[in-house]
Design a protein that fits this description.
Low-confidence stretches: none
CATH superfamily: Anthranilate synthase
Largest sheet: 10 strands, antiparallel
CATH architecture: 4-Layer Sandwich
Helix content: 10-25%
Distance between the termini: 18 Å
Number of domains: 1
Length: 341
């Protein structure tokens, strides 16, 4: 980073291996066909270009993870700045849902904090230590900037010709020792995402399987998760699958085009790479077999700009949403990132 050369370092969920890709060239390269080999970093806006770190132009290093147990994270208070604005946005989304054919809108916000004493390697180590069940990454390009995050959500995975994708929605705070109970709003939200993904991939795979929905823990939060998979048909290129899935209803809404129009008009800021996707594209020889791909939705992430850190966070709104509770959910989600800063 001091040399202003592009790199990414990451560890996939439930793995003990950190992969690093280091590039000499600072030229911005883009992924257009999804037949390329390397690491991709895609913005939320599906009309903007996806950045590619080509694997054949990178020095690749793989290390077994060995973190000191003494790494600690601290608790940090919530920030009330932006509360009124976000609650108003949620209320507008609920009104839109009640007066249209929209079923769900995922609204988000950006919170800015000072980061003058920030050290990238320390924050990355803390993320690795704290979030075992997430893709933890540190990504840098001098023309774009530095992004870090810990995402619990797979967009899609292709391994040995088999497509695996995940519906992840519904959020509540993890409370030690308490029985987990899900409300109607969260169950409905999760079902919407599952149904959308099933329809999106139904004609692209053989022997479609939809797993049972269960609760998963990601940092201090709980989510509902459903695994969807099948054997990829030979005439189904990855580019078509990704364009169908991204952005999923878990980060945008349903129907997708109507939700995107609402967000473009009402959200009031540029999400950039938040709720985009990132990960391995057609890898050969690092992990898995030839032409394996594993892409993650870019959630629980932060961007570093001019000694400030921008934390991006959002939540799914349905007709049953409560604006105050939706604000509190975004506050809980920011604690994932704030605890390591």
């Amino acid at each position: 980073m001091n040399q202003q050369k592009p790199f990414v370092a990451y560890r996939k969920h439930n793995s003990n291996r950190v992969v690093g890709m280091f590039l000499e060239s600072t030229e911005l390269r883009f992924c257009r066909s999804m037949d390329e080999h390397g690491f991709v970093f895609a913005p939320y806006d599906d009309e903007s270009e996806t950045i590619l770190f080509p694997i054949n132009e990178s020095e690749v290093m793989v290390e077994e993870l060995a973190l000191h147990e003494s790494i600690t994270t601290s608790k940090i208070g919530s920030n009330e700045v932006g509360k009124k604005k976000h609650i108003q946005l949620v209320e507008k989304a609920i009104e839109e849902i009640e007066s249209s054919n929209l079923q769900k809108i995922v609204v988000s916000r950006k919170e800015v904090m000072p980061s003058s004493n920030f050290k990238a390697e320390e924050v990355f180590q803390k993320l690795l230590s704290k979030y075992q069940n997430a893709l933890v990454y540190c990504w840098y390009h001098p023309s774009v900037g530095l992004w870090m995050g810990a995402s619990p959500e797979t967009l899609c995975k292709v391994t040995s010709g088999r497509l695996i994708t995940i519906a992840l929605a519904g959020t509540q705070k993890h409370l030690e020792g308490q029985e987990v109970k899900w409300g109607a709003k969260e169950i409905e939200e999760q079902q919407m995402v599952t149904d959308y993904i099933v329809e999106a991939v139904r004609n692209k795979v053989d022997e479609l399987e939809v797993g049972a929905t269960h609760t998963v823990k990601a940092g201090n939060l709980l989510h509902l998760k459903t695994r969807i998979e099948g054997d990829l048909k030979s005439q189904s290129p990855l580019k078509d699958i990704v364009s169908e899935l991204h952005p999923t209803p878990a980060v945008c809404g349903l129907p997708k085009n109507d939700a995107q129009t609402f967000l473009k008009n009402k959200e009031g800021y540029n999400r950039k790479f938040y709720t985009g996707y990132l990960g391995e594209l057609n890898y050969d020889g690092i992990e898995g077999s030839r032409r394996d791909s594993h892409l993650f939705v870019n959630l629980r992430c932060m961007e570093f700009v001019d000694e400030q850190v921008c934390i991006y966070v959002g939540g799914g709104i349905t007709a049953d949403s409560d604006a105050q509770k939706e604000w509190e959910e975004t506050v809980n989600k920011t604690l994932t990132i704030k605890s390591v800063l």
